[in-house]
Design brief:
31% strand, 7 strands, 7-stranded mixed sheet, alpha+beta
Length: 167
């Protein structure tokens, strides 16, 4: 699952304390951006509906630097949830490496479509998804009708998973 020689990306359980700490840091940042703690429509992801959850560690320091998961929407579709990178590591390829690992894992599990969502206060997230080959799609699921929500999708096949894992 290695995509970046400076990182060690590991599959962990949803309840893993390091993953939980990273998700709390992400939620605190989103609370600051959106000005509220109620910025996610629908049911929050959990260990029961996540196909995989990954934590990226810096090989040099051993410190966790980011995370991300895939929530199953149906047998062939998953949504990226809690993709987060610590601010001091942004721009260094950590998010792209986590995304590549998620795409490779999706392909391995037979998932053929990955979706994602970013809010209006997340232009960096929207730019990231668009530059990573995701196409804008109509808002889906709990995001349908949410005014400041932007949804994306990407087809995953053996070519895209192999290409992304090598990036």
């Amino acid at each position: 699952m290695q995509t970046n020689p400076r990182l060690n990306i590991r599959t962990v359980t949803w309840s893993n304390p390091v993953g939980a700490d990273l998700r709390r840091a992400q939620q605190a940042e989103l609370d600051a951006r959106f000005g509220t703690s109620d910025h996610e429509p629908g049911t929050p992801p959990s260990g029961a509906d996540c196909a995989v959850f990954l934590v990226a560690y810096d090989k040099g320091s051993g410190q966790p630097v980011g995370c991300g998961g895939l929530r199953l929407l149906d047998s062939a579709t998953a949504e990226i949830k809690r993709l987060y990178v610590l601010p001091y590591t942004r721009g260094s390829g950590v998010a792209s490496s986590i995304l590549a690992a998620l795409e490779a894992e999706a392909h391995k599990q037979g998932i053929t479509r990955i979706t994602a969502e970013a809010g209006s206060a997340q232009p960096d997230g929207r730019n990231f998804y668009e530059s990573s080959g995701f196409e804008p799609v109509p808002n889906f699921g709990a995001y349908a009708g949410v005014e400041h929500s932007y949804c994306y999708a990407k087809t995953i096949d053996s070519h895209s998973a192999a290409h992304t894992a090598m990036a």
